[in-house]
Amino acid sequence: RISKICKEELQDFWLQLSDQSFDARLQIFFDMADSNEDGRITRDEVQELIMLSASANKLSSLKERAHEYANLIMEELDPENLGYIELWQLEALLLQRDVYMEYSRPLSTPGWRQNLST
Predict the structure, then answer these.
(1) CA distance linking residue 113 with residue 67, whole number of Å
(2) What is the distance between the alpha carbons of residues 116 and 107, in angstroms, rounded to a whole number?
(3) What are phi and psi of 42, to 5 degrees?
(4) Fold of 7-103
(5) pLDDT digits (tens, 9 = 90+) for 16-56
(6) In this predicted structure, what is the pLDDT of residue 99?
(7) Which of 20, 18, 50 is closest to 32 using CA atoms?
(8) Which of these, 7, 12, 48, 56, is most buried using a 10 Å CB contact count?
(9) Residue 58 DSSP code
(10) CA-based Rg of the chain, rounded to a whole angstrom?
(11) E strand map for 3-102
(12) Quick one: how far is CA 55 from the chain centroid?
């Protein structure tokens, strides 16, 4: 069954898509993952997202292990075992990653490659 969208909803969606801020992009991603629109992402929704991404990118090995990867993601983002993650948890993880990347040295520098090949 296809639901209809009104002009105002389409305009709001377009404004969200064109907003390049971190918060707007994160909200769009979260809304796409939250298939039942309850404000939470469950392990099943994480697994579905992994499988859709794997199918779109023709990554059969990722698709086969989607259940395992979904469990790992939930283990990290849902340490209390509530069965869901909320937007703030995903945001905290991504912001933590950005801090790590600022202080991390890339492993793909020529010096590292030379050391690995000897």
Answers:
(1) 34
(2) 10
(3) -90, 170
(4) Recoverin; domain 1 (1.10.238)
(5) 666 677 787 888 889 989 999 999 999 999 999 999 888 88
(6) 56
(7) 50
(8) 48
(9) T
(10) 18
(11) 41-42, 84-85
(12) 16
